[in-house]
Structure formats: C-alpha cells, structure tokens
Specification:
- It is a single chain.
- By secondary structure, the protein is an alpha/beta fold.
- The protein contains ten helices and eight strands.
- It binds nickel (II) ion.
C-alpha cells in the first residue's frame, strides 16, 4: 500500500510538537509521502524546513484567504523567493473563504491575492492547492479566467456532483478527506463515486477534519487509512489498485518521482 497525504499541516503546533510519533504511526499504515501545506509566511517557511529535514516530506507555500490581514508585498516576495527550492512542489493553500469573511471589501482582497498567486504559480510552473469555502462560483470563475497552467487540486472538495464536471474541465484534481467518511456526508460520497479515479487525491488536512469515527479529535496523517477505506468501499475496486492509482496521480501532479 502506497499512500500520499497530499494536504497536511505538520507545521501546525498540534502535530509539530509530537512529530516523531505522528510520522511513525503514519508510516505504519503505508503513508510514504506527505505534502505539508502553509497558510501564511511563518507556516510556509516551517513547511520548507520540514521538507528539507525529511526526504518524504514536500512543501506547498502561499497565503490562505483568511490569513491576508496585514500581509505586505514584501512578505509575499520574501516567502515566494523560495519557489525554486526543489522541495517546494506547489503554491498553496490559496483561494476564497466566504464562510469566515463576509465583508465585500475583504472578499475583494481575497480575490486579488488568489489571482496573484495563481499567476505566480503559472510563471514558476507549479500546481496550486485551492481552498474554497462557500465561494464556489467566484472561485470557479477565477480559475476559468486565470487557468492554472500546471494544474492543481481542489483541496477538501465540497462542491456538488454537477460542479465536479466544471473542475474536471480545468484539468484539476479533486482532494477528498475526513468529511467523506462522515455518516451524513451525502454529497462527498456522490462526488467520490463520480470522480474518475485518475483525478482523485487523498488528504487529511490534519490536524483538522478527523474522519469518522474519530471526528472532533486531533487529526493525523495515519487517519488517511480511514479515508482510503471509504473510497475503496464507494469505488468497489481493490484497495491496492485504488491506492496505487491515487499515489501515481499525486506524484504526477506535484512532479515528484514515483
Ligand atoms: Ni488545509
């Protein structure tokens, strides 16, 4: 079993402070690679530090839509100067979050930063990791107008089956995690059934979004096994086949040797 946790925050103190234990239990269930995703300058730098320390860890760097307050052009330039580091494999997480941000002026700023970071990724030939919460229409319009040239993933995809077609048209991948396993998760299960296996990625978003029956606890990469189990059940294929294909998808997207 080869598993790639393509969205994880080992740079978050809940995991960072007990890293050895977290990594050891992840390895036991077959997690071979982990993409640590930043949300601001400090967390992105920490992601790079982890990626340089462990050969199986990679970093995504960028500014999350709820973390834009006070971010300056100098902060952006300083962080993004690391884009050519060989362990930096994506720009993320970037996107729109209308759940936490209601003010139209702040939403406008989110859009500007989202576009700026997509264009930066295109210029530096990197895929993107997209955070979208309750902003699907605006998010999709931006992705259509500023298409990610090196693809990307809709991290923790929460859209409908109908919208799935739109994302697939953009040649992007669908990331599924803990919510897929929730007993009341009708839409994610439908999405999982519908999405071609070649476009699916697995992720945890740890320490957030712990899967059922661990919902509400501190999530860890090892719990990705529960998400894989649910994908296996829904797709009705062998677990080995599913994990192999998804592992290949992940390496292909992030330009990492198998
Ligand atoms: Ni995240």
């Amino acid at each position: 079993m080869r598993i790639f946790d393509t969205h994880c925050h080992l740079n978050h103190e809940d995991l960072y402070n007990r890293l050895d234990e977290v990594l050891e239990s992840a390895k036991k269930v077959g997690v071979e690679k982990i993409l640590v995703v930043g949300w601001d300058k400090a967390s992105s730098l920490k992601a790079i530090e982890l990626a340089e320390q462990y050969d199986f860890i990679y970093a995504a760097i960028g500014f999350h839509p709820t973390e834009l307050n006070g971010v300056t052009e100098a902060d952006f330039n300083e962080l993004m100067a690391n884009i050519d580091n060989p362990k930096v494999v994506a720009v993320g997480e970037i996107g729109l979050d209308y759940h936490w941000v209601k003010d139209p002026e702040e939403r406008k700023i989110q859009k500007e930063w989202f576009i700026k970071q997509i264009e930066f990724a295109n210029l530096h030939k990197k895929p993107i990791s997209v955070h979208n919460r309750e902003a699907f229409e605006d998010c999709l319009n931006i992705l259509k107008e500023h298409q990610p040239q090196y693809s990307g993933v809709m991290h923790c995809y929460s859209g409908s089956v109908e919208s799935l077609a739109e994302v697939l048209k953009l040649n992007m991948y669908i990331g599924l995690d803990g919510p897929l396993t929730f007993t009341n998760a009708k839409t994610p299960k439908e999405v999982c059934e519908e999405v071609p296996l070649e476009r699916l990625l697995l992720e945890t978003d740890a320490p957030y979004l712990a899967p059922h029956p661990l919902r509400g606890t501190v999530n860890e990469p090892k719990n990705i096994a529960l998400v894989l189990d649910e994908v296996t059940r829904i797709k009705g294929l062998s677990k080995k086949h599913i994990s192999d294909v998804i592992f290949e998808n992940s390496c292909k997207l992030f330009n990492i040797e198998l």
